[in-house]
Amino acid sequence: MRIALAATCLADTLFPGAPRATVRLLERLGHDVVFPRGQACCGQMHINTGYVEEAVPVVRNHVETFAPVADGAWDAVVIPSGSCTGSVRHQQAMVCRRAGLDDLAATAEAVAARTYELSELLVDLLGVTDVGAWFPHRVTYHPTCHSLRMLRVGDRPLRLLRAVEGIDLVELPAAESCCGFGGTFALKNADTSAAMLADKTANVRGTGAAVVTAGDTSCLMHIGGGLSRQRAGIGTLHLAEILASTREEPTPLPRVRAGATEVTR
Amino acid sequence: MSTFLGIPGIRRRSDDAAPEGSDPFGPVPHPDEPLRWGEPFPAAAKQTLQDDQLRRKLGHATRTIRAKRASVVGEVPDWEALRDTGSAIKEQVMANLPDLLARLEENVTARGGVVHWARDAAEANRIVTEIARAQGADEVVKVKSMATQEIGLNEHLAAEGIAAIETDLAELIVQLADDMPSHILVPAIHRNRAEIRDIFRRRMGDAPEDLSDVPRELAMAARAHLRRKFLSAKVAVSGANFGVADTGTLAVVESEGNGRMCLTLPETLVTVMGIEKLIPTYEDLEVFLQLLPRSSTGERMNPYTSLWTGVTPGDGPQEFHLVLLDNGRTDVLADEVGRSALHCIRCSACLNVCPVYERVGGHAYGSVYPGPIGAILTPQLTASSGGMSGADDVNASLPYASTLCGACYDVCPVKIDIPSILVDLRAREVDADRGRAVDPWRAAMKAASWVMSDGDRFGLAGRAATLGHVVGGRDGVVSKAPPPASAWTRSRDLPVPPQQTFRRWMAEHEKDGGER
C-alpha cells in the first residue's frame, strides 16, 4: 500500500523518533510511506483552546495537503497519534462549517474517512497484529484518552504489544484515567494537571517497567516529563518505536535523567 | 451493601472536637449567587488541592461509586439502547418545550394544582415565600433539590423569617455547617464522619451529648431530629426529577424516605421544577427510572419513587403548587450546541468519573453545579449576566476546567457530549473576549496559526528549534523555564529539541531511496 504519513507537529519537532519508527515499521511490512511536505499541524491545539478562528488556516493546510488521498493518490493516511486522529475525525469539518467553508468541510470529511491512527491502520487495514518486533524489556501501556474514548481503538495496541517477542508487558493500574495533560490545560490549570500526573506516575512506577508506552507523543511528553522530574529511571517510547524494534535494529532504551533512582517494584 | 454515600471516608482528625465557637464550619460562606462564587477555577482549584484529606476522601468516594455504577450498568444488556432512547426523548422535549410546558400546566391545573411561572431566581423565591406566608408557616421542610439550591431559596426564606429545613441527610449536614454543597447527589462528600459528628453536636440542637462518629448513630440522631420537623411542618418544598406533560404527574426519586415524608405529610406542597425536567409521556418514565438510579447511586432501583398528580382529596397535601423555573434555561435552549446540557437528569455520574473533579472537589467550581456538567451548565445559565464574557467573569474559566478526556460523555445516561460542548464554549468565550486590547494567549495563538498553516514555515521553525538542542545540558531536559513555560516546568521536565527534525530526516531518507 501507499500510505501518507501525517507526522504531527509535536513529533516532527520534538519527538522525531515516533514518526521515524512509523516509517521503518511500515516499510518493513512492505508498504510505501509518503511524507507530503506541505503538512504542519492538524489544528487541535487551537481548536481545543477556543481559538477556532485561528485554527481555520491550520485545518485548511492539513486538509489540502492530504486531500489527494480522497482521489486515490494514496491508500490511506496514518497518524501516530490518537488525539490528532481524533481531531481530524471529529473536529476539522466542524471548524470548516463554523467558518462557512462547506466545501472544505466536505473535503475534510473525505480525508478523515481515510485517516487512521497507527494501531487502527495496522490491525484493521493491514490486518497484522504480529509485526515481527523484538523488544526484551518490561513495558507498561497507557491508553491515552482520545485513543480510548474518542477513537475507541480498544485493545488493538495491546494486541500489537503482546505479539512483540521478548516483551514483558505489565498492566498499568488505573490505566484509563487521564494523565492530566489536556493540551493547554497543563498550562492553564497547571496545579490540577500536576495532581493528576502525580497519580499517573505513581501507578507507572509501581509497575516496575523500564518503559511506559502510548500512542500519543503528547501524553508521553507529559508523563515522561513527570517521571524525569522525579528521576524515576523510567523512560517513554511511542508504540511505533517498540513495534519498529527488531533483533537486527533494536530500539535502545530511552535515556533517562542522570541521578535516576533505581526502579523498584 | 448499603448506600451510605452521604458519609464518605473514615479518616478522623482526632477525637477532640474543634474548640467551641470556631464556627462557621463551612469553607465556603454563603455566596450571593449560587451559580457564581469564589475565585476563577484555576485559583480555586489550587486552594482545594492543598487539602490532602479532601483528596483522599474524594478519591475513596468516587472510586467506590464508580465501581458500583460500572457493575450495575454492566448487567443491563440494552444499556446503550436505553441511553439512545433517553437522549432522543430529551431532544424531543427540547424541540417542543413551549407546547409541552403548556400541556403540563393544563394537566396539573385540571387535577387541582396551581402552576406558577418564574423567569428567574428572584421570581421563584418570591412565589414560594408568598405561598408559605399564606399558610402562616415560619418553617418549611425540604426535599433535596438542585433547583432550589440554584436559586438560593433557603437563604431567601431565612431573610423573610421562614426557616427552611433540609431533610436529606447530606443536605442537612451541609445546611447545619453553613456550608455549600460540593456534589449534586452527595452534597457533603467533602465531609468525613468526625466532622459530621461535630456539626451535629454543635448545630443540630437536639443531638445526644455523647454522639459518636459511628454512621448508624449519626443517622439515628438526624432521624430523630427530622421526625419532629416532618410532623410539625405545614409546608413542604421539593424539586422534581421529572414532570410528565401528558398527565401532569411529578416524580421525585430518593434513597432515604425523607422525600416521601415531605411529599405526603404537610398540608401544602410547593414543587420548584426547572422547565427542562419535562418528559412527554408517562411511559417515558420507564426509560429514565432505569437510567437514573444505576447512573447516580449505582443501584438497580432507588429505594423511594414518589409520583403525584395534582391534589387527591383526603390524601396527602391538599394544596399543590408547581413553580416552573426558567433562570437562564431559555438562553441555553437557544444555543444549538450547548442546549443538550439541558438534557441532564442530575445523576452526577460525570462528577464521579471526572479526573479533575476527583482531585479538586466541588467547591472549586464556584457553583452549585460542579464537575463536567457544571462546567458546561453554569456558564450557559449565567450567560445573560456575563457568564461567558471572557476575563471579566469567573464562570468563563469553567469550560477550561477539563482535559477533554471524555470519561463524562461515556457515562452520561442521556449521552450529553460534554467534551464537544466544552470546546464550543471555549470558542464562544474566546470570541466574546476578542475586543480586549492585550491578550497574550491570542497573540501566541495567532503567531502559531501562521507558522502551523504552512509546511515550509513550519519546517523552518522546526529547524530553528533544533538549535535549542544545546540548552538541555547534560540531562537533555529543561527543568526550569521562564513564564509561561514555567507553568509546565514547575512539576515536569521539558524535553529539549532533537538535533534533527523528522522532516529533515525524512528528506534524507527519501534521497536514500527509502532505505532506512
From TrEMBL, chain A:
Pfam families xref list: CCG
GO cellular component terms listed in the entry, alphabetical order: cytosol
Top-rank taxon: Bacteria
Location of the Cysteine-rich domain: 6-88, 139-223
Stored InterPro entries: Cys_rich_dom
UniProt GO MF annotations: oxidoreductase activity
Source organism of the structure: Isoptericola sediminis
Name of the protein this chain belongs to: (Fe-S)-binding protein
Automatic annotation (TrEMBL), chain B:
UniProt keywords, alphabetically: 4Fe-4S, Electron transport, Iron, Iron-sulfur, Metal-binding, Repeat, Transport
Recorded coiled-coil stretches: none
SUPFAM superfamilies, alphabetized: 4Fe-4S ferredoxins, NagB/RpiA/CoA transferase-like
Ranges where the record places region Disordered: 1-40
GO MF annotation terms: 4 iron, 4 sulfur cluster binding
Domain Lactate utilization protein B C-terminal: start-end pairs: 442-510
Residues annotated as domain LUD: 102-324
UniProt GO BP: lactate metabolic process
Domain 4Fe-4S ferredoxin-type, chain residue ranges per copy: 341-416
The name this protein goes by in its record: Iron-sulfur cluster-binding protein
